[in-house]
Specification:
Blueprint lengths: L6 H4 L17 H11 L4 H15 L5 E7 L2 E4 L16 H5 L4 E3 L3 E7 L2 E5 L6 H45 L4 H15 L4 E8 L2 E8 L10 E3 L3 H9 L3 E3 L13 H7 L3 E9 L2 E10 L7 H19 L9 H14 L4 H4 L1 H12 L3 H13 L2 E6 L4 E5 L12 H6 L10 E5 L2 E10 L2 E10 L5 H41 L2 H13 L8 E9 L1 H8 L3 H20 L5 E5 L2 E7 L3 H19 L2 E6 L9 H18 L6 E3 L6 H5 L3 H4 L3 H16 L5 H11 L4 H8 L3 H15 L6 H28 L1
Parallel strand pairs: 20-21
Antiparallel strand pairs: 1-2, 1-5, 3-4, 4-5, 6-7, 6-11, 7-8, 9-10, 10-11, 12-13, 12-16, 14-15, 15-16, 17-19, 17-20, 18-19
Length: 760
């Protein structure tokens, strides 16, 4: 309809201009309630209900809600004036008047607000009915206002909900270390900081428990007293504190200025973690940029510190399941923000997403992209293996042989763009598939002509869809691994009811632990010392832990790995019960592989075979016992101990006897006390001699050769030992007692050393 048309022009002929039928017993209150209730459904719902109410007031006349569009008007609700939108020009006096107007040949116009009114196909409106129409128009306008306010309120709630995502991510962590790491990371991200950390109180000191973004390991070992540094000041005052120039500020002490210089810190802000007992820690963030934190930033840190205090006290009550979901949300958000070319490729996007929802996977993605762009498509993994191709013969095409060369030349900085090159038989286009900051594959396209904008859009959509598919698979794998890890720890350490519940849950994952199995403990040895020696940062240390864990799971999967999980430097697995020789050989080979690739050492303890899942707890203790024995019985060439090979040493290792002392130390003191006292001033010479003498079947000659001394020296030392201890080494029973006491002493010494390192 042209803009100059009138309402009458749009009406179906003939135009009868009927008078309203006699009004029913009109309930204006009910009409107003209906319009008010419609406000919860939005503007359009209000307009539709209002039109129906006006029609009821006018005794069934045709009614339409109309809105001004430029110089004309259009229908904003279902109308009685025929199909399509009604665009008409009303007299200027009617459009600007606030009164009900009867328009000859058109109908009755009831104004609602500037630019909106109600048009009815009737010519006669009595005074009573006009009064009702005015009331209803006022109610209509109020309902529209309420609908807009409801929408604004809902948008505000959505914004608040997005801020609460941070709280949910923090509180979803299951262990204290995981909680603190999540808090450090999220706080630094939200405040645009370079470094974030959480101190927890230890007596009258603050100890750094988690830190992200730091360049040196020194910050991970920070201990601060009251008044030392910014965190110490927060502990002392119990209030938030910020400094704009750390080195020039007189609010903080100079105790740690050397670390501030090493980390190139310019400004910082911290807040106390408050609980019933007072300050239990400090949340602090630092910036290397000369951009001071604002007062609003200080308030945000204080709010996050309150949340952190709750999370620390309830860390073991929550589970971490949000990271992958958040990543998917961010990916979907980036898709919605695509530039104008997405409009051209809307159908392609719909088809690709539809294929994913229908479970078509990368095969369907390749087919849809190829058809829309009119090209040959291959989707490759990181190893350049073909995941999907269309047409099918593309997977055998010789142009794929040139992809590897092109990938090597692909610029590392161009992670979100395509690279196109001219080939002898057409054009080759490569686009990386990026997920979580990692390049996980490639979308490869070959065309006879230079790629146009549509092909670029198709390549982008194919890469995004492939990333979504891979993220979905990765998220499912992470969730499954997390659930299975929790079930495994329940089986190993839980109470009988917890173990039984875990066994029942395992059936949902189709994991059967019937039959002979073993528990394997692997400990990454000296990773912290290696990191300091090699100058690794925390990211490198964590990557080493992850690489070792992944290597172990891959290797043990070939042996039928059932369950695996890790805690720090400890990895625990349940595998089918191979014989001791096979297990030892396989784990030695795996240790050599890890040492060669990752430059870290591992040692292994393996339980004896068990036939029933009810024996898992005992098997776990056996694996711990065997791992403890590795340090003494194992060597760099043999870092594996099987529990059934321990023999009598099991008595020394089970139950914590060595670490706690019990009666074993009394026995050692009674048998070896004088010798140990002598050796403390003579470099342990007698203990080494007796150990070698017993290991060499009491042969003076072999002992002398092993110790690089003369046989007379060995004989002299043996006599000296007998004189000190009163033991006759010629008697088998006494030699056996000495052998056992030496073993006890060696293990007790090693256990104490391990405990001391753990305490430090």
């Amino acid at each position: 309809m042209p803009p100059s048309a009138t309402v009458g022009d749009a009406l179906p002929a003939p135009w009868p201009h009927p008078a309203p039928s006699p009004a029913p017993a009109l309930q204006i209150g009910g009409a107003l309630r209906a319009v008010a209730d419609a406000a919860l459904g939005g503007d359009q719902r209000v307009k539709e209900v209002a039109a129906a109410c006006f029609a009821a007031v006018l005794g069934g006349c045709g009614v339409a809600v109309i809105e001004r569009v430029g110089a004309g008007w259009r229908c904003a609700s279902e109308n009685a004036f025929g199909p399509g939108e009604l665009i008409a020009v009303l007299p200027t006096s009617v459009a600007t008047s606030g009164d009900i107007s009867v328009l000859p040949g058109i109908g009755t116009f009831v104004p609602v607000k500037p630019g909106m009114g109600v048009l009815a196909d009737c010519q006669l409106v009595d005074a009573d009915r006009a009064q009702v129409l005015r009331c209803l128009a006022i109610g209509f306008e109020l309902a529209l206002t309420a609908a807009n306010q409801y929408r604004v309120t809902r948008d505000a709630m959505d914004e608040i909900d997005s801020l609460q995502q941070v709280a949910r991510r923090i509180l979803s962590a299951s262990e204290l270390d995981e909680v603190l790491f999540s808090i450090s990371r999220e706080t630094a991200r939200l405040l645009g900081a370079d470094i974030g950390g959480v101190f927890l109180r230890d007596g009258d000191e603050l100890v750094m428990r988690s830190c992200v973004g730091n360049d040196t390991l020194d910050i991970d070992r920070l201990r601060m007293k009251r008044g030392q540094g910014l965190a110490g000041r927060v502990l002392e005052t119990g209030r938030p504190c910020k400094v704009d120039d750390y080195l020039a500020s007189d609010q903080v002490s100079r105790d740690y200025f050397w670390l501030v210089r090493d980390e190139q810190i310019r400004c910082a802000v911290g807040a106390p973690l408050l609980a019933r007992e007072g300050v239990i820690g400090v949340l602090e963030v630092w910036r290397r940029r000369d951009v001071p934190f604002t007062d609003q930033d200080e308030k945000r840190v204080a709010a996050l510190a309150n949340l952190t205090a709750i999370a620390v006290q309830n860390a073991r009550l929550y589970e971490s399941q949000k990271a992958s979901v958040q990543q998917l949300i961010q990916t979907n958000e980036s898709l919605r923000q695509q530039h104008e070319v997405v409009r051209v490729s809307a159908q392609l996007q719909d088809d690709v997403i539809g294929a994913l929802l229908d479970g078509g996977g990368v095969t369907a993605i390749a087919r849809i992209v190829a058809r829309h762009a009119g090209v040959e498509v291959a989707i490759l993994g990181t190893d350049l293996g073909v995941m999907a191709a269309y047409p099918a013969q593309v997977s055998n095409g010789d142009w794929l042989e040139r992809v590897e060369t092109a990938v090597r030349q692909f610029p590392g900085y161009a992670n979100n763009t395509s690279v196109t090159s001219r080939e002898r038989d057409g054009w080759l286009s490569l686009r990386p598939i990026v997920a979580g900051g990692d390049r996980i594959g490639w979308v490869c396209m070959r065309s006879n002509s230079e790629p146009a904008e549509m092909q670029e859009a198709a390549s982008r959509q194919g890469a995004v869809a492939s990333a979504l598919y891979c993220l979905e698979q990765r998220a499912a794998s992470v969730a499954r691994a997390s659930a299975l890890g929790a079930l495994m720890w329940d089986l190993l350490e839980g109470t009988p009811p917890v173990r039984q519940s875990a066994l029942e849950r395992l059936t949902e994952f189709h994991i059967d632990l019937r039959g002979p199995h073993r528990v394997v403990h692997c400990t990454i040895e000296g990773l912290a010392e290696t990191a300091r020696g090699e100058g690794w940062n925390m990211d490198t240390v964590q990557r080493k832990q992850r690489d070792v864990r992944d290597a172990i799971e891959r290797a043990l999967s070939a042996a039928g790995l059932k369950l695996a999980s890790s805690r720090g430097d400890l990895i625990v697995a349940i595998i089918p019960a191979l014989d001791a020789a096979q297990v030892t050989r396989q784990l030695k080979s795996l240790n050599e592989e890890i040492l060669a690739r990752d430059k870290v050492r591992t040692f292994w303890g393996v339980s004896a075979p068990f036939d029933s899942p009810s024996q898992l707890s005992n098997a776990n203790q056996e694996a711990k016992c065997a791992a403890l024995a590795v340090g003494k019985l194992g060597t760099a060439q043999s870092p594996v101990v099987i529990h059934e090979h321990l023999g009598v040493l099991t008595l020394l290792l089970n139950g914590g006897g060595i670490a706690e002392g019990h009666d074993l130390r009394k026995y050692v003191d009674r048998m070896l006390g004088p010798m140990l006292k002598y050796d403390s001033a003579h470099h342990g010479v007698l203990a080494k001699t007796i150990r070698s003498y017993l290991d060499n079947d009491c042969s003076l000659k072999l002992t002398a050769l092993q110790l690089f001394v003369h046989e007379k020296t060995v004989r002299y030392r043996l006599a000296q030992f007998e004189e000190l201890t009163g033991v006759d080494l010629r008697r088998h029973r006494e030699r056996m007692s000495v052998d056992l006491a030496l073993l006890m002493h060696d293990f007790a010494t090693r256990s104490a050393g391990v405990a001391g390192k753990g305490a430090g």
